[in-house]
Amino acid sequence: xxxxxxxxxxxxxxxxxxxxxxxxxxxxxxxxxxxxxxxxxxxxxxxxxxxxxxxxxxxxxxxxxxxxxxxxxxxxxxxxxxxxxxxxxxxxxxxxxxxxxxxxxxxxxxxxxxxxxxxxxxxxxxxxxxxxxxxxxxxxxxxxxxxxxxxxxxxxxxxxxxxxxxxxxxxxxxxxxxxxxxxxxxxxxxxxxxxxxxxxxxxxxxxxxxxxxxxxxxxxxxxxxxxxxxxxxxxxxxxxxxxxxxxxxxxxxxxxxxxxxxxxxxxxxxxxxxxxxxxxxxxxxxxxxxxxxxxxxxxxxxxxxxxxxxxxxxxxxxxxxxxxxxx
Length: 327
Known about the structure:
The protein is of the alpha+beta class.
């Protein structure tokens, strides 16, 4: 937004009571890669009503609006994001358990959700224990691990549509598939979800989670900022050429570095920030990996991580112009 418009809109937001907000907030503070320029305005609502109010405000004034959680799967542009960034985090993180049902707000930290389920003797969420994100993004992307997705457990989703109306959706409306849901095409903002789990033994559930975390610590980089798996793994890929980490390692790319971005020596499907990495560094490294792999085995790697352009548009990082390996 131009400075004059920004100042005027900030005054209006203060009167609207849409939650806590900050002006020209560095997005590097709000993502696990620690990369990204400033957002014009970053807002942290405390309720679904505030989210709806903010959506209607942005729509009325034609202001770009981007919704994020903890930014664990996002690469923000070096110039930041123009418009409003809506962050669903600790201010919207209420969770309650009723029998085999869990109702939780979008800002609930996923490992906390998994641990609370285990404590209550509820199984089926063991696979999410090591996912460092929030529930809203997990539901939107049908996230999970071990080739499972949270959609298996979703019974209802409360979401705000692009007009600022609250909608209650069932699994059939969400159309969950591998790392995808219809919520993305709807432009919906997930504010709450109800999950159904299976009864189990708390001790066994906790032991399964401990095994998962131990394996993650053994395989994945932990100290350097990263976003988790960069490239998408599918059943078709596994059957034909193997998982992305194996493909990239066999191409001799472990440890490859551009600027401050490096292919992790521990796991080749991770790109780590060695210090001072820019979004341009990461996108250039993604393009290089894709180019080398395609030349070697003819397979076009696609990204799981999302790039956010300066207009707040979200896309798989391989669709960013500078990540085009043909260029």
